[in-house]
Amino acid sequence: SKTPECTELSKSEMREVDLGSGRALLIKEHGEFSAMGHKCPHYGAPLVKGVLSKGHVRCPWHGACFNIATGDIEDFPGLDSLPTFQVRVEKDKVIIRANKDLPSFLSSNVSAGPAGLVCAETLRQEGFTDRIVMCTMDRHPPYDRPKLSKSLESTAEQLRLRSMDFLQDHDIELLTEKEAVAIDVKTRSVTFEDGLRMEYRKLFIATGSKPRPMNYKGKDVRNVFHLRTPEDANSVARLANNKNAVIVGTSFVGMEVAAALTDKAHSVSVIGIETVPFKKALGEKVGKAIMKVGTHSGEIKLFRTRSTYLKEVVLKSGKVLRADVCVIGAGSVPATGFLKQSGIHMDSKGFITVNKMMQTNADGVFAGGDMVIFPFPPRNNKKVNIPHWQMAHVHGRVAALSMMGRATEIKTVPYFWSAMFGKTIRYAGYGDGFDDVIIQGDLDELRFVAFYTRSEEVVAVASMNYDPIVSRVAEVLGSGKTIKKRDVE
Ligand SMILES: Cc1cc2nc3c(=O)[nH]c(=O)nc-3n(C[C@H](O)[C@H](O)[C@H](O)COP(=O)(O)OP(=O)(O)OC[C@H]3O[C@@H](n4cnc5c(N)ncnc54)[C@H](O)[C@@H]3O)c2cc1C
Ligand code: FES
């Protein structure tokens, strides 16, 4: 074994070690040794570069957390927990005992996907034995939606979060292309577009969001996309090849697509109402720094089409942009229209309101993910909407435990990421209403960390090329501590 001498490691340290047939992460915390898988099951980040603190390791890339004793995933994103290995110390040597066929990841324990999938999987992991039916209007089983705008050519198969075999093995029924059109909480039933009616004892609604409706003519053209499915992304990549692409909206999705197309398309034009993308989320300085695609500020007047194809986008200013393909990334709204008559309580914007256990006002009905507002402890339980991939996982898990009468509260730090031009911006916390930004590092070089403060407190952090600072801050915020502005300054 090539493991180190036990005194080689400081009191709290992680080290990747070669076991011959694979690698493991050897951890020493407060003098105690443990070992587990070395790669994050989400996108494979080397956990040795993450943050070790209080019995868990937080991934440097998107903040997933793993218990060092059990390998269990304690915060998301990601589907799987990690394998753990026996460790003992003999004559100052650390001995790690692992199977020769070292598994890279271990399925089950607490696994995840978007809200609905995590809910279903958590129910099974926690011993729920009744029928579980997962219904989606998508054509495909749950897939990695964030990759749609970053890797346009990925197929549904490549993006799939779980195989059909996995779902079958765990007795999770999946009905695809099943659009729910009504829910009756009195008879406890869901009606689908094709007329099917299903009764439930417990219901979890996680229908996510849909593109914000926009006011323009020519909606039924065939080369305009909203990027909701792998087919949308694949079509955009194909149609943009050496052609002119127009992106409407400077949202993260819009800008990610623009970045992904710059190498492929003849031209990429971005149209935004804001002059600086992400100004509201990240502040003007950071927004400007990461804006590598020039944007046309303005609003669309009309889409000029020939038969069923968009040809030109005309702005209110009179400017005309040739468009062989157009992607609309102008934000989203909750996909809750079908619940209007259901009696399930929603706010004026259509977000379902839930309590800290993800329960709605209707008996046996739970909701989570992009389409809810939920009480957020760091803001005195004010109800907020946090439409992140990671948060949807958390909601799914909390809802499942509530459904089983094992109420648990949300304990997480919101974590978001976006990738453009091969670089990733990471973000943790909840920066809504920040009043100042403290930046360290070099914005021009895109190597920086930005602390978002509200009054005297750091409420969020963003970084590029500065790992693992965002996970480190998430770790501090997650432990319930506050970071003061003066600490950062
Ligand atoms: C292109 C793109 C890129 C993104 N990139 C990132 C990123 O980099 N990082 C990040 O943190 N977040 C990102 N997001 C946001 C992230 O994908 C969402 O926060 C997350 O998917 C929300 O999960 P959810 O389970 O609430 O809903 P969704 O993932 O939206 O899932 C909703 C499900 O409900 C189904 N559904 C909707 N209405 C009905 C109905 N009436 N009947 C039946 N089924 C229905 C849908 O078909 C879908 O299967 C991105 C989103 C998009 C679109
Ligand atoms: S790679 Fe670890 S959380 Fe994404």
UniProtKB/TrEMBL annotation:
<dbReference type="GO" id="GO:0005739">
    <property type="term" value="C:mitochondrion"/>
</dbReference>
<dbReference type="InterPro" id="IPR036188">
    <property type="entry name" value="FAD/NAD-bd_sf"/>
</dbReference>
<keyword id="KW-0001">2Fe-2S</keyword>
<keyword id="KW-0479">Metal-binding</keyword>
<dbReference type="InterPro" id="IPR028202">
    <property type="entry name" value="Reductase_C"/>
</dbReference>
<dbReference type="InterPro" id="IPR023753">
    <property type="entry name" value="FAD/NAD-binding_dom"/>
</dbReference>
<dbReference type="InterPro" id="IPR050446">
    <property type="entry name" value="FAD-oxidoreductase/Apoptosis"/>
</dbReference>
<dbReference type="InterPro" id="IPR016156">
    <property type="entry name" value="FAD/NAD-linked_Rdtase_dimer_sf"/>
</dbReference>
<feature type="domain" description="Rieske">
    <location>
        <begin position="1"/>
        <end position="96"/>
    </location>
</feature>
<dbReference type="InterPro" id="IPR017941">
    <property type="entry name" value="Rieske_2Fe-2S"/>
</dbReference>
<comment type="similarity">
    <text>Belongs to the FAD-dependent oxidoreductase family.</text>
</comment>
<dbReference type="GO" id="GO:0097194">
    <property type="term" value="P:execution phase of apoptosis"/>
</dbReference>
<dbReference type="Pfam" id="PF14759">
    <property type="entry name" value="Reductase_C"/>
</dbReference>
<keyword id="KW-0408">Iron</keyword>
<dbReference type="InterPro" id="IPR036922">
    <property type="entry name" value="Rieske_2Fe-2S_sf"/>
</dbReference>
<protein>
    <submittedName>
        <fullName>AIF family member 3</fullName>
    </submittedName>
</protein>
<keyword id="KW-0285">Flavoprotein</keyword>
<dbReference type="GO" id="GO:0016651">
    <property type="term" value="F:oxidoreductase activity, acting on NAD(P)H"/>
</dbReference>
<dbReference type="Pfam" id="PF07992">
    <property type="entry name" value="Pyr_redox_2"/>
</dbReference>
<dbReference type="Pfam" id="PF00355">
    <property type="entry name" value="Rieske"/>
</dbReference>
<keyword id="KW-0274">FAD</keyword>
<dbReference type="GO" id="GO:0051537">
    <property type="term" value="F:2 iron, 2 sulfur cluster binding"/>
</dbReference>
<keyword id="KW-0411">Iron-sulfur</keyword>
<dbReference type="GO" id="GO:0046872">
    <property type="term" value="F:metal ion binding"/>
</dbReference>
<keyword id="KW-0560">Oxidoreductase</keyword>
